[in-house]
UniProtKB/TrEMBL annotation:
It comes from the Bacteria. Its EC number is 3.2.1.8. PROSITE patterns: NODB. This is Endo-1,4-beta-xylanase. Keywords: Carbohydrate metabolism, Glycosidase, Hydrolase, Polysaccharide degradation, Xylan degradation. Pfam families: Polysacc_deac_1. GO terms for molecular function: endo-1,4-beta-xylanase activity; hydrolase activity, acting on carbon-nitrogen (but not peptide) bonds. The lineage of its organism: Bacteria, Bacillati, Actinomycetota, Actinomycetes, Propionibacteriales. InterPro entries: Glyco_hydro/deAcase_b/a-brl, NODB_dom, Polysacc_deacetylase_ArnD. GO terms for biological process: xylan catabolic process. Residues 30-217 form the NodB homology domain.
Length: 227
């Protein structure tokens, strides 16, 4: 405990984070990093985890605190970590942080980190990346770095959220094929709506890319990577 009677803050775990958002995958050659935003969501997160397990692929899940606390959210989060996937802080809800003060952003990032670790039952669980809702970094980049998290850029986005003109499996598969290029960080969604067509596209295209010699790694700058 510290002098105020509270446990000392445990940083997210990123190694030497920088304020510059990361949008490149670890490794060289045919490597790419899959990231999934807005979960966990009982509608599709479990099925996505099934697909990734069948393919032998790990990804980074950018999780929302309100969804972790929703029915089934904590169980899905624990499964995500148990199956070897990495975590990013995606704030407590879907509110845009572009206009937030540094103090407001810090309160939300700390709160979401606490929610994640409480659900996992591990006060030291690594959450080494941060992705701002809607990609609106505002003042959040330096805050994330101070809290031990590497900001993630949007990377290669497949536009699979509600309101996009076409979210059919055929269209999302085409976008995913185009997005998965050497060194890319790819952004898709497992929450924020029913992402069934996203999961179908991932199952199809990731299998194709594996056959073509791709490896799926993590974004640069998180835990376990020396700089």
């Amino acid at each position: 405990m510290n002098g105020a009677g509270r446990a000392a803050f445990v940083p997210g775990g990123a190694v030497a984070p920088t304020e510059t958002p990361v949008a490149t995958a670890r490794g060289t050659g045919r490597v790419a990093a899959l990231t999934f935003d807005d979960g966990p969501d009982p509608r599709q997160t479990g099925r996505l985890l099934d697909v990734l397990a069948d393919l032998g692929v790990t990804a980074t899940f950018c999780v929302v605190g309100d969804n972790v606390r929703a029915p089934g959210g904590a169980e899905l989060l624990r499964r995500t970590v148990a199956e070897g996937h990495a975590l990013a802080n995606h704030s407590t809800d879907f509110a845009d942080l572009g206009a937030a003060t540094a103090a407001e952003a810090e309160a939300l990032l700390r709160a979401n980190l606490a929610i994640i670790r409480e659900a996992l039952g591990d006060p030291y669980a690594p959450v080494p990346w941060f992705r701002a809702p809607n990609g609106s970094l505002g003042r959040t980049g330096p805050v994330a770095v101070r809290l031990g998290m590497q900001p993630l850029g949007l990377g290669r986005v497949i536009h699979d959220w509600d309101g996009c003109d076409d979210r059919s499996v055929t269209t999302l598969a085409h976008r995913l094929r185009t997005a998965i290029t050497p060194g890319a960080v790819v952004l898709a969604h497992d929450g924020g709506g029913d992402r069934g067509t996203t999961v179908d596209a991932v199952a199809l295209v990731v299998a194709e890319k594996l056959d073509a010699g791709y490896r799926f790694t993590l974004p640069r700058g998180g835990a376990g990577e020396q700089r």
